[in-house]
From TrEMBL:
GO cellular component annotations of the record: cytoplasm
Protein name per its UniProtKB record: OBG-type G domain-containing protein
GO molecular function, one term: ATP hydrolysis activity
Assigned keywords, A-Z: GTP-binding, Nucleotide-binding
Xref: PROSITE patterns: G_OBG
PANTHER family associated with the record: OBG GTPASE FAMILY (PTHR23305), OBG-TYPE G DOMAIN-CONTAINING PROTEIN (PTHR23305:SF1)
Residue span(s) of domain OBG-type G: 4-273
One Pfam family of this chain: MMR_HSR1
Length: 434
């Protein structure tokens, strides 16, 4: 199964590297000058999803193998990438050129980090009163231009081949879009969204651009992270942007505030719950092992609380990840050995809901068996969910059936791969009882 990869994009100095550091284990270089990032930074982040441990009263027994679970919110690992800063004209070689656009080919969704304070211009240089709406517009235009130009350069040859072999439109376009990590279903969705029914050989340049526009929406769903919300001029820009763009794709963030809170939490000055406004100090918890803060540090914490946490409810960075996963439509699935205790077998750390795997929309029960392990699919007998309810092989996994136990004709060796092999405890080489 292809791992989920989110890419942070945007102009230099918008806060992309700070955002990556705030949501992952990466240590991306940060600076207030253009092109701090030259090569893509990679890290592992943890996206919040609902864990069934709370629904079934198993919070005390919930033991994630990877990530963590906090009061029924599961933090599941995903891959993150910080692409070097783009500037207007990157698709034609300006700035650091379009080599960094190529990095986007591998991403499933984009997080466009925008400096909403208006203190940096389109090239990432210090400025006053810059309108961040420009950044939202030109970045999409650069990616659109990059894809469109690649198509138009070869368009006459594409049309001739399309007519000669009597190919359908989706197959022809998929051949061209495959380099952007596309599959035929993505192209089909883009064509359905575009509403274009005319033969491909009659398309003009504007029609091609419309196809690319819809392809981008499907292939590169984008969350816009309005960063630096604690800066003086951010309020007026936020209001203006909220009026113009789809608010379901906008999230208010302060990556620097999140980094600060994570740092002093690690130093044991505070207890801080990610994605909330809850920050507790030694004064709040006098019997705890937290270290007392001096006046300078205390003032910094209070400033973050006043300008970010109490005002917006959180730093916003966890919400960005959740929104990206929502746009992709992926679902968390919890493979277990027992649908009553929700335990796994062959584990040195017993507990409930040990594993959580994110799957793509449309994944079926049998399809998930193949993802878990080839032998689970090979010796598959049946699958069941909570309440010992049998599941059809063709049932699509959703939030009502995402706790799954697989029964196989033989026991699957615990040495063969992940969690997935912990789903059965039948006697080797003997048929399971139904």
């Amino acid at each position: 199964m292809k791992e989920i990869l989110l890419a942070c994009v945007g102009k230099p100095s918008a806060g992309k590297s700070s955002f990556l550091n705030a949501v992952s284990d990466a240590t991306a270089k940060v600076g207030n000058y253009p092109f701090t990032t030259i090569k893509p930074n990679h890290g592992v982040s943890y996206v919040p999803v609902e864990c069934p441990c709370k629904k079934y009263g198993k919070q005390d027994q919930c033991r994630p193998r990877y990530g963590r679970c906090v009061e029924g919110t599961r933090f599941v690992p995903i891959q993150m990438m910080d692409v070097a800063g783009l500037v207007p004209g990157a698709s034609t070689g300006l700035g650091l050129g379009n080599q960094f656009l190529d990095d986007l080919r591998h991403a499933n969704a984009l997080i466009h980090v925008v400096d909403v304070s208006g203190t940096t211009d389109q090239n990432g240089k210090e400025a006053e009163g810059y309108d961040p709406i420009n950044d939202i517009n030109w970045l999409r235009l650069e990616i659109h231009t990059w894809i469109t130009n690649n198509l138009l350069k070869r368009w006459s040859g594409i049309v001739r081949r399309h007519v000669a072999i009597k190919s359908n439109v989706v197959d022809t376009l998929q051949t061209q879009f495959s380099g952007y990590g596309s599959v035929a279903s993505v192209v089909q969705k883009a064509m359905d969204k575009s509403g274009i029914k005319t033969p491909l050989e009659t398309w003009d340049e504007e029609t091609v651009k419309k196809v690319v526009d819809n392809f981008m929406d499907v292939r590169f769903p984008t969350v816009i992270a309005l960063n630096k919300i604690d800066m003086p001029d951010s309020d007026k820009n936020i209001t203006k942007i909220m009026r113009k763009y789809d608010q379901n794709k906008l999230v208010l963030t302060s990556a620097l505030a999140e980094n600060f809170l994570r740092k002093i939490r690690k130093q044991n000055y505070i207890k801080y719950i990610d994605g909330t406004d809850i920050v507790e100090t030694k004064e709040d918890l006098p019997d705890s092992d937290l270290k007392p803060m001096d006046d300078k540090l205390k003032n910094r914490v209070e400033k973050v609380q006043d300008l970010v946490l109490f005002r917006y409810g959180s730093t916003g960075v966890q919400e960005v990840l959740g929104k990206a996963i929502e746009l992709l439509g992926v679902s968390p699935v919890y493979p277990v050995k027992n649908v009553s205790t929700f335990s796994s077998t062959n584990s040195t750390k017993p507990g409930a809901f040990r594993d959580c795997i994110l799957v793509w929309p449309g994944t079926t029960v049998r399809g998930f068996a193949k993802i878990l392990h080839a032998e689970i699919d090979k010796y598959y007998l049946y699958a069941e969910t909570v309440g010992n309810m049998r599941l059809s092989e063709e049932a699509v996994i959703n939030n009502s059936n995402n706790v799954i136990c697989y029964r196989t004709a033989i026991a699957i060796s615990s040495k063969s791969s992940i969690t997935n092999n912990d789903t059965n405890n039948n006697t080797p080489d003997k048929k399971s009882k139904k």
